[in-house]
Design goal:
The chain is mainly α and 169 residues long. The chain folds into 2 domains: 110 residues, Non-ribosomal Peptide Synthetase Peptidyl Carrier Protein, Chain A (Orthogonal Bundle), CATH 1.10.1200; 56 residues. It contains 5 helices and 2 strands; from the N terminus they run ααββααα. It has a two-stranded antiparallel ribbon. Strand 1 and strand 2 form a beta hairpin. Helix 2 packs across helix 3 and helix 4 runs antiparallel to helix 5. The longest helix is centred in the middle third of the chain and has 43 residues. The radius of gyration is 31 Å and the shape is rod-shaped.
Length: 169
């Protein structure tokens, strides 16, 4: 929860151009809903707790009708915070969906590459082929067996992971 609040704070206070553009567009669509929620649900609850009229005003000296509308200002701040929180949660979900596709591509690329120990074995095998062909053949067989064992291990892990994910659903 602490990390979530930290990310929300960074989003609400800093943001970048794309986040802000999305915020303006989607925020406009949520304005009526959030305003109604604030005015019809939150404001009455605050009035009950505070024991005063929420939409109050502080009269100012000078021409009649001048006043600080602190209730309206507080309502606008609450509207902003609610809209920002909704947008933050939506963007977080969208970013998560986008990153899922990228993770799969990265995993496929990593799986296509030989691990470091296999690369080292291949280099050693090339040297051995030049100096000791018979020993190189045995080492090559061992390398193939090691690679096969690694692939079987990965397949078993993937199968276990799929099984666990099905259980969670």
């Amino acid at each position: 929860m602490k990390k979530f609040m930290k990310e929300f704070k960074e989003f609400a206070l800093k943001g970048n151009v794309m986040d802000m553009a999305i915020g303006v567009i989607i925020g406009g669509a949520f304005t009526a809903i959030v305003t109604a929620f604030t005015d019809d649900f939150i404001t009455p609850l605050i009035s009950i707790v505070g024991g005063t009229e929420f939409g109050g005003k502080i009269p100012l000296p000078g021409p009649e009708g001048n006043a600080i509308l602190w209730g309206d200002f507080l309502s606008a701040v609450l509207n902003f915070l609610i809209v920002a929180l909704i947008l933050f949660a939506m963007l977080k979900a969208i970013n998560k969906l986008v990153s899922l596709g990228q993770k799969k591509k990265e995993e496929e690329a990593a799986a296509a590459e030989d691990p470091a120990d296999i690369k080292l074995l291949k280099e050693m095998l090339a040297i051995m082929k030049e100096e000791h062909p018979e020993a190189a053949k045995k080492a090559e067989e061992k390398a193939a067996a090691a690679k096969k064992a690694e692939e079987e291990k990965k397949a078993a892990e993937k199968k276990a992971e799929e099984k666990n994910s099905k259980k969670k659903k």
